[in-house]
């Protein structure tokens, strides 16, 4: 059977941007920039983007497209023994979906709770007490939270329906799930910057503290953020590339994907920090005392700001809906891209039937998600997230760049990319793939390990 193909170039590019632009852009990037030198962070950020992120993205697109195969099979075609790297990548990705979808379940619930601003003026109590029902602190397992389960069912069903017909159903989804969060971010950003105190908030995000650039951790964070945000090393971009025709442009598509993704991050930074500035002014505490990233930002800090918004409950409900709809549509394309990377690998290796595989995987993922849906699930989620995103992503990235750069050959890949692409890439590509990416990732790994032991 012929391999499925994207309906158009834009279906592919939108799907790639959709995978890259996920929850990390909204809640990881702003916090990263803030805590790593503010405006100065953009220096290592762009260096990491151009020197490592974009080249590896091009390489992943190119490998998938050239071999017309998912990550494990592509790796096997380069070198038999390298197949395990591809499996490692997609299996970690699979584990990530199990809890990514639990967060999607939280978001579904908060979409509902936005009506009437259910968290009132104490979102922290609402989140931990009413919603998660954690009262005895960490480690408390116990009964399953039904509202989260319902959200989890919705998330898996949605993913199933998006992936069911492969590239054609994905293509129909990304035309709205990718632009919608961007539009919502723009609207939230405009409302944000017209609030009192917004400039103070934005100062925290943009005021450069160049002294921070002397800290190697800032550089490690920039490289880590770039690899994570571009969804690299999970076999996703390889699977997506494998649904292209062999002569599809690579260089341009990778650049558009990377810049579209970064633009989403910057918009999110503005939408988040302008509102934090407003909130700081309202509550009389400085911005640096209210700022948070991750789950705390999405379910505690931002809701708190919403409950302080001028205009009464109806306006606050609308802002809440816009915010959680933005997160939901931002997250969904990342969530299903992880599943698709696994599906592609399974179908290449075991000739699995797409629908049957998706149904089985969804049920399995749902059951694994139950672990995170219990009252203390949040703590499990934190631990596993930390573990996977650091070790799996870094180690796969190192092995992958070595296999592609040294075993397949960076120059050979560059020739292929240049044959099909409008923009021609120079020899710096080889340097990046063979030296810069492995060195950067090894350094990040070492720094992380050192911090871990301390
Ligand atoms: N790129 C996504 C984000 O920034 C996260 C992600 C990583 C999604 C890996 C899928 C795979 O949120």
TrEMBL record:
Positions of transmembrane segments: 42-63, 84-108, 144-163, 175-194, 222-243, 255-281, 313-336, 357-381, 387-410, 431-450
Compartments (UniProt record): Membrane
Keywords: Membrane, Symport, Transmembrane, Transmembrane helix, Transport
Pfam family membership, one: SNF
Major location category of this protein: membrane
Membrane topology qualifier: Multi-pass membrane protein
Membrane among keywords: yes
Protein family (similarity comment): Belongs to the sodium:neurotransmitter symporter (SNF) (TC 2.A.22) family.
PANTHER family: BLOATED TUBULES, ISOFORM B-RELATED, SODIUM/CHLORIDE DEPENDENT TRANSPORTER
Protein name stated in the entry: Transporter
Organism whose genome encodes this protein: Thermosipho affectus
Phylogenetic lineage: Bacteria, Thermotogati, Thermotogota, Thermotogae, Thermotogales
């Amino acid at each position: 059977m012929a391999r499925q193909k994207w309906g158009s170039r834009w279906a592919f590019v939108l799907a790639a941007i959709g995978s890259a632009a996920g929850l990390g852009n909204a809640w990881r990037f702003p916090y990263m920039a803030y805590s790593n030198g503010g405006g100065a962070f953009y220096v290592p950020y762009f260096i990491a983007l151009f020197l490592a992120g974009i080249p590896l993205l091009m390489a992943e697109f190119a490998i998938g497209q050239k071999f017309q195969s998912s990550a494990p099979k592509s790796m096997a075609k380069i070198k038999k023994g390298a197949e395990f790297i591809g499996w490692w990548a997609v299996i970690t990705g699979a584990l990530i979906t199990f809890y990514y979808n639990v967060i999607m379940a939280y978001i579904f619930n908060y979409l509902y709770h936005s009506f009437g601003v259910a968290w009132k003026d104490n979102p922290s109590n609402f989140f931990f007490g009413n919603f998660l029902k954690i009262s005895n602190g960490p480690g408390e397992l116990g009964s399953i939270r039904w509202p989260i389960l319902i959200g989890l069912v919705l998330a898996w069903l949605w993913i199933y329906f998006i992936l069911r017909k492969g590239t054609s159903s994905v293509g129909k989804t990304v035309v709205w799930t990718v632009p919608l969060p961007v539009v919502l971010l723009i609207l939230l950003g405009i409302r944000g910057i017209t609030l009192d105190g917004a400039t103070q908030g934005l100062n925290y995000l943009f005021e450069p503290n160049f002294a921070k650039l002397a800290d190697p951790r800032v550089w490690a964070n920039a490289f880590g953020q770039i690899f994570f945000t571009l969804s690299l090393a999970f076999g996703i971009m390889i699977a997506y590339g494998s649904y292209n025709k062999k002569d599809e442009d690579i260089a341009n598509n990778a650049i558009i994907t990377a810049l579209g993704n970064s633009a989403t991050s910057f918009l999110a930074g503005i939408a988040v920090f302008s509102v934090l500035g407003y909130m700081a002014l309202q509550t009389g505490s400085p911005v640096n005392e209210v700022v948070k990233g991750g789950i705390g930002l999405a379910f505690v800090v931002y809701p708190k700001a919403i409950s302080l918004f001028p205009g009464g409950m109806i306006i606050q409900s609308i802002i809440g809906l816009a915010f959680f709809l933005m997160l939901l549509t931002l997250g969904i394309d990342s969530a299903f891209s992880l599943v698709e990377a696994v599906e592609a690998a399974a179908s290449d290796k075991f000739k699995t039937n797409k629908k049957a595989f998706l149904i089985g995987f969804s049920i399995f993922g749902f059951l694994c998600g139950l672990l995170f849906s219990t009252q203390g699930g949040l703590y499990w989620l934190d631990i596993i997230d930390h573990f996977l995103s650091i070790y799996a992503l870094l180690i796969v990235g190192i092995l992958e760049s070595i296999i592609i750069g040294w075993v397949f050959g960076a120059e050979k890949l560059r020739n292929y990319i240049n044959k099909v692409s409008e923009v021609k890439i120079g020899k710096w590509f080889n340097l990046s793939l063979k030296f810069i990416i492995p060195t950067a990732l090894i350094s990040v790994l070492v720094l992380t390990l050192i911090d871990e032991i301390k």
